[in-house]
Amino acid sequence: MIEDKNQQRTALSDLGEFGLIDHLTSQFKVSQKSTIQSIGDDAAVLEFKNKQIVVTTDLLVEGVHFDLSYMPLKHLGYKAVIVNLSDVFAMNAKATQITVSIAVSNRFPLEALEELYAGIGTAAKIYDIDVVGGDTTSSTSGLLISVTAIGEVEKEDVVCRSGAKPNDLLVVTGDLGGAYMGLQVLEREKQVFLVNPNSQPDMEPYSYIIERQLKPEARKDIVKLFKDLEVKPTSMIDVSDGLSSEIMHLCKHSKVGCDLYEEKLPLDPQVISTCEEFNIDSTTVALNGGEDYELLFTLSQEDYPKIKANPNFTVIGYMTEPNVGMHLVTRAETKIPLQAQGWNALNDQE
Ligand SMILES: [Mg+2]
Question: CA-to-CA distance for 127 and 123, rounded, in angstroms?
């Protein structure tokens, strides 16, 4: 489907690998002080002085993690960067560099890759990171994108999954479930389109949740906000697989239990109305939807006054002694064990 939009089709073989890399990466400018040598040598050279360095990587595979029939390549490039930056921010670190590698089949012309790299370039600009390397190779089937992100953090500021204590507050940024419901709408419209290519869906009522799916943002602003508020979470993780599974990671690594309150889950009105339309339970979506790229963290109760009035944060529960276990406290005030049904990327392939 993407091919239809491109008037011009320049075969990748016309450029050769090095010509292609030069062509795609010439837009990237260096702005980080820690970037000593960027693209153009055998390796990038980075210098961080006294900082601790965080490194994270993600591999996105066509047909498993994205569907190009509704995911514009520009958005895909953007999202591939965002999902990695989100992991850097989840360490309370500042993102500084990325490398981008792609494997691509000959069904993609140069113009398609230009779109992809335009999205990567936009994300790099907005989040002020340098693209310092990568690789391009051929693929016999679909498109693969692997992004590695590098960040820096003062030793005393780094936040891991392992520091939560009983009685700490459990806090999440933004709202949950939007990306998952956006995906449901896109999947439905794809099916409608396959049956009736002339249908003109009105996507306006779903604008927020579709944006959450196609063009998510990572919470760079929250890392800065923590500094401004003089708050350091005791543990932190980003919400990529779904709230339940992320809470279970925090509990497991911190060796604590947790009570999560259903009535506290932050939901956008568009998520609620779309859940009603699809007859899906909004709590299930908030718990297991995934891809929200919000930050989930725990905070010592004495720091509560510092975040109390801030609309970015919702306290959704608190941590307990480990022997108590992990529970969802429902609106009816019954306690049910928390389960991670979060969409496991590997199970999804079946
Ligand atoms: Mg993560």
Answer: 6
